[in-house]
Amino acid sequence: MANVSVAAEWQLLYNRYYRKPEIYQMKWKHIDLSRNKVACAPFGGPIAVIRDDSKIVQLYGESALRKLRIFSSSGVLLSETVWKHPGGRLIGMSWTDDQTLVCIVRDGTVFRYNIHGELLEPNSPFSLGPEVFQQTVKECVFWGNGVVCVTMAGQLFCVPDFKNLTRTVKLADPGIEAVEDEEDEGFAGMRCVAVIEPQYTMSGNVEVLIGVGDGLISVDEDGLQPLAVGLVPGPLQKMVVSPNGKFLAMFTHDGRIVVANMDFSQIFIDYACESVLPPEQLVWCALDTVLAYWDDMLLMVGPNDDPIRYFYDEPIVLIPECDGVRILSNTCMEFLHRVPDSTVSIFKIGSTSPAALLYDALDHFDRRSAKADENLRLIRGSLPEAVEACVDGAGHEYNVSRQRTLLRAASYGQAFCSNFERNRIQEMCKTLRVLNFVRDHEIGIPLSIQQYKLLTASVLIGRLINSHHHLLALRISEYLGMNQEVVIMHWACSKITASLTIPDATLLEILLDKLKLCKAISYAAVAAHADKSGRRKLAAMLVEHEPRSSKQVPLLLSIGEEDTALIKATESGDTDLVYLVVFHIWHKRPALEFFGTIQARPLARDLFVSYARCYEHEFLKDFFLSIGQLHEVAFLLWKESWELGKNPMASRGSPLHGPRIKLIEKAQSLFSETKEHNFESKAAEEHAKLLRMQHELEVTTKQAIFVDSSISDTIRTCIVLGYNQAASKVQKEFKVSEKRWYWLKVFALATIRNWEALEKFSKEKRPPIGYRPFVEACIDADEKSEALKYIPKLADPRERAEAYARIGMAKEAADAASQAKDGELLGRLKLTFAQNAAASSIFDTLRDRLSFQGVT
Amino acid sequence: MAQIPNLDNSPLNLKSIREQSQRELLNILKNIRGKKCLVIDPKLGGSLSLVIQTSLLKEHGVELWHLSAESIQTECTKVVYLVHARHSLMRIICSHISSDITKGLVREYYVYFVPRRTVSCEKVLEQEKVHHLVTIGEYPLYMVPLEEDVLSFELDLSAKECEVDGDTTSLWHIAKAIHKLEFSFGVIPHVRAKGKASVRVADILNRMQTEEAVNSSDMGLPEINTLILLDREVDMVTPMCSQLTYEGLLDEFLRINNGAVELEASIMGLQQEGKKIKVPLNSSDKLFKETRDLNFEVVVQVLRQKATSMKQDYTEMTTTYHAFGEIIMLLTCQRLGLVKTTKYEKYGANLVYYCRCFEYIEELIHKQEPLAKILRLLILFSVTNSGLPKKHFDYLRQRELLHSYGFEHLETLINLEKSGLLKKQESKSNWLTIKRALQLVIEDTDTANPNDISYVFSGYAPLSIRLVQHAVRSGWRPMEEILKLLPGPHSETKRSGFSSSPSSDTLQVASTTIDKDADGRRSLVLVVFIGGVTFAEISAIRYLSAQEGMAYDLIIGTTKMVNGHSLVETYMGNLV
């Protein structure tokens, strides 16, 4: 039976089965791992290979030129580049989480490559600093996105995050003497080094474990401390921290593999190996077991029972994954992992679990055997678990036909059970379809289902587009219902970079054709990339398609299309964008050219003027002069004169009035340049004249109360103060009309309650505006008896009536109104009195009815 | 009665908008740890008082200051400026910071711009070399609900900036505010605009929809059916007339600011001489809700009837009603003074007795009455006559206004001329045609039992609201001829957030029944006044909304609540 052959490949370690199916035959040729330095990225990532320069070059066997080659996990060459960096021997090489290859050479220079073998900082590679440069790097220990370097002087330096390559952190001095020993071990004290990733430490910073002598110390930024004194099983030759940062696997000087937790309170494994030579590689296989590799033997040690031994006649590289270990050899890639429980329950020899019976039932069903039904009856009660196990098992399979069989079994079983979650199978199919696509030799990303879930689909898509598998990425994101914008965007940018020879118009069409797939895509971002790639014209064409002005305008500016930017900004109605453009042009162009540009665009001009009015007076004057708006300059001057007046330093009556008047006169002469500004010119002229007179008045009266009041006010003030001659002078000088003169004088006299003078004034001659001003002034001053002197003199009986009404003489008012034979007026008066009464009566009612506590 | 209005009965979920603004502000404060000093631009302070209680701010460790030229005396090391994005305010902030520096004070500065940061303001900070010292943020307060049916965008200078300075920033803000509403309530399918600014706002709104679409597929039917945009410029007559509704009159005499008036403490029956206290005015008060929209003459009568039943209902709020009585008294007296003015306003609106009006204005100038009052009348005459005759125009400006009020008002006059409010007569006025066609002046208005919106001005139906009335009933099309007589272009657009549904091209004109929602709620019309709206106009709109046979609830958006005085004041120069 097929089942048997499946389980035949398994190995038992204590109570757990392990298997290591081959996932790829490597596509590469003539690669000998033993002669190369190799860096493999987890999650089925790429493999970087470079000749190990500590080994002798075989004449004719290989090229003398040293090349860094990057392969996919299936051994397809992705890129290659010649390695000719200075700085000495390559010490450390590893992939970071975002799949950049970090290479650290002896003098502490860091070269970073992308997956296409291109240097990320081709001109100025990052350096770990002068100290490292002096001491030179001895060893590098990498984790996710960081590295700890041990220098020859026994100092530790750490790059906490390659994503922001800005700082190197020097860790505390472990205080180990750098004694060169004959075995080129660097120094005798420091035996082995391991790191605990920042995410698993208390401090949030990386901690370095160092085997010193027969103990262990932990070093971080702030200091060092010995670890588990007395519990460490003797001098350590090699150690490695578990993927969750909680356990430590060690190889001791006496050939034992020991696994303990960090404070050594529990020892999980203590296995004595045949050899005391430390293994070449020591890695964790998930969290269950530890693998040790010597020359031709791979030893898997678990908590109990005898270890499993695998033998290899070629060199291998162990690549730890979250759920197992990939084993890379010269010819193939295997994946060593624990057989999942669901798979065990189906394929274990002699298994009678429901899942196994269901799988068997499908076999019978396919062969049209009635046994199928029998099997189903047997497991009726536990059918859902059986289906679940088949679905789960399918997920863990690399073999497509076995996936299919398992899924068919699940689907067959599901038909007989009503309460199974319907879309479980469908989802698994989707996931497997994605996995099978990326596992394909050409793509070469052998993700297990568990790795895929940990990595997430969006990261996977990110990796696919990074390695330029755009179509697949697009299909997958479409298939999974994810946003395709990222993919299309990346594609468009890569396309631009790669299409140096395609003419702009053609490339634009190619790009637009794809960009329209995605509705909200940012054309501006693509255009920005085009610009960066030196294709300004293409950028301009692309940005035309950007619907969001807030994105479009800044980009237009950056590609030097200021005039288009100004048009677009104006169209958008967003004045902030217009300002952005205006400032940009202002900054960039000579003043006259700038003036010309904004003069042609009213909105830009107006905004500029409104800004400049606040902060750039002189510049604004230049602007108005340049466009011949002399009256605007005049206005500015005139305003400045007011500013001078407001200035507290310019105390009234001081000679500072001189400059004020000069400014106003200058404004006046500018106003008079054009006919249309006659009004303004006249006003300025009079203003200057007034200021002069007021100034004189202040000098003669020694009272600083005239400047900046109006002509009318000046006259009033004069009368109030008794300077009648001065008042008349102002009247004549400014040709103040008789009418206004009367009003002003009457009210001024009433203000100082000079009733005698008022009466005299009324008798000077017949007032040109009648006696109403006299009446009103008296009433306003609440002087009824004075008012009564003038009311009878009012010519119009209607006015008389209203005047009487205002001082509350209802009867007289009524009489006058009836004399005027004005019914409407009479009615209105009545209403006035009535409404007054009504209002007060309401108030009275309210006051009576409401009780005001504590309020009178 | 709190100054923050109760919005429970709003036809639109305005409460959520206000709550969001509250949250956003508190988040800003929360993110700045520890005690801090919040410095608010005084204009913004008014708007904020409608959004959040000061007590709530204090709970978040805030010490409140108003932004002024004087530097801030505080112990706090963190200073948070919350300001409108205006150039003039930047200088004050800069001077604060540099004065701190000279004093050797080390503080953290945060500048939060309302409603968003702008390049030009940051430019000022850069030029003054303080940009690197401040953390810049935004507080996107684009609108504030004043009432259940009134939203204010708090752009008090909108009209002046657009017409005099050519700065159209406010138009973008209005469009943004409406677009924000659309994100909450769906794309508004019908847009009708009249006036230059309105048509531009409609245009910007459409652009915003293409740039950043409201996804209406997951929103259901839009809650607002129609948007009517009106420029204040289209009808400058109405705000220049004295409002005769109760609330309008309160505003004319006592100035309602952000839903409250300031009164002498003595009026409130409190014995604190000379102290002013704030009295909130909004529909949370039942009595005010009933009376606010009535013609003032009627209010007196209504109150007399109410007086008897009041004791039972309002005993616990005696002081308020003490104040109420006093306010009524005050208004009654003031109203008497207004009679003469309204008479001349009426002449103006009817275009009769021009000479007498002119003499009246001249006399007011001679008596040196407040300039705003005179300008109001002048604008009224200028607008209805399409300008003043050259003889009078020159005489008034040169001889009378400047001589009486000072040369600093040259700027005011130029501003008014630029905006077309006070200008030389150049063409024949078409006001009479408009007046007749829209039946603006109605004799024998029964103010007690009104049958037309003209009751709010005792016989004059506000032009703006007539337009709204027509726009709601039948759209612009039947009245194109009249619209052409009014300033500015007009537009009518149909928009749709649903790409799938075929656009039914028949305007929903007569389909009054269809517009009713399933739950019996009437669909909504949002009327936006660009340049401000008066309380009397709002009363008229409420009157329309309450009519039988009206298929819509009307809600109002405005750049700011205005009246003739405040409107004229925005055009006054800032020299003095």
From TrEMBL, chain A:
GO MF terms held by the record: actin binding
Q: Name one Pfam family in it.
A: Vps16_C
Keyword field: Membrane, Vacuole
- Principal localization? membrane
Specify the Vps16 N-terminal domain's residue ranges. Answer: 8-421
Biological process annotations from GO: endosomal transport; intracellular protein transport; vacuole fusion, non-autophagic
Functionally, this protein is described as follows:
Required for vacuole biogenesis and vacuole enlargment in dividing and expanding cells. Involved in the docking or fusion of prevacuolar vesicles.
The secretion signal range is none
Q: Say if the entry is tagged with keyword Cytoplasm.
A: no
| GO CC terms, sorted | endosome; HOPS complex; lysosomal membrane
Q: InterPro entries given for it?
A: VPS16 (IPR016534), Vps16_C (IPR006925), Vps16_C_sf (IPR038132), Vps16_N (IPR006926), WD40_repeat_dom_sf (IPR036322)
Q: Which residues form the Vps16 C-terminal domain?
A: 521-834
- Protein's membrane topology: Peripheral membrane protein
Domain of life according to the entry: Eukaryota
The keyword Membrane belongs to this UniProt entry's keyword annotation = yes
What family is it from?
Answer: Belongs to the VPS16 family.
Annotated SUPFAM superfamilies: WD40 repeat-like (SSF50978)
Q: Where in the cell is it found?
A: Vacuole membrane
Q: Report the protein name in the record.
A: Protein VACUOLELESS1
UniProtKB/TrEMBL annotation, chain B:
Q: Which InterPro entries match?
A: Sec-1-like_dom1, Sec-1-like_dom3a, Sec1-like, Sec1-like_dom2, Sec1-like_sf, VPS33_dom3b
The domain of life is Eukaryota
Q: Tell me one Pfam family matched here.
A: Sec1
Q: Which GO terms describe its biological process?
A: vesicle-mediated transport
Provide the family line.
Answer: Belongs to the STXBP/unc-18/SEC1 family.
Q: What is this protein's record name?
A: Sec1 domain-containing protein
